[in-house]
Amino acid sequence: xxxxxxxxDEVFKDPSTEVEDFRFGKRVVAVFDDMVSRSVPFYEExxxxxxxxxxxxxxxxxxxxxxxxxxxxxxxGLDPELSEKVRFVGIDNSExxxxxxxxxxxxxxxxxxxxxxxxxxxxxxLIENASVVVMxxxxxxxxxxxxxxxxxxxxxxxxxxxCFIMVEKVLGEDSLLNxxxxxxxxxxxxxxHYSEMEISQKREALENVLIPYRLSENIELLHRSGFRxxxxxxxxxxxxxxxxxx
Length: 246
Known about the structure:
alpha/beta, single chain, eight-stranded mixed beta sheet, 246 residues, globular, Rossmann fold
């Protein structure tokens, strides 16, 4: 029996003559939890760290937002750590993800007030009474044209002393180390049993969809948007976690 509780990610297993741009449709949603657990280094530890930090900033009778909530993993991880008087708001631009997130919340028996919304973050965001905002591997999918405005809107609307937690795929600061970090990342995917074809086809599918910034650019973006503090809390080659405080 396969001990893995998730549906196995085989989205890019078969050869394709024309690889389409990556999208969070029904096929990806069905295997998403396996996909991120095998494709993102230390994914469980990053989730634990985000919950640990959110616990210190979440205030009773305020909202905690997860922008790009996908299947709800982050909010479900926050649930046992935060007061029942904290309301959850999950937002994702994929209708299929929103449906799956709602199902996962129902299955988990979430009793706190919550709302899961389908909305395109490229078009802006309305945030109300938020003490914590999380974006886990989401900002990198926002078009660069709209990215700075989105982060500025988060800072402007989040409560004073509220925190913004983000995890991103990042570029190296120079081309040599960037190439090495990418090589180490693909080595990790091979260790997690992705084939060369799967790695190659997913890379091609993401090329015009996932556009990372350098770590320094992300830190500058946070400060430029109005956050008083911005600090790296996690770094693994071409992945980074940052926390910013208004």
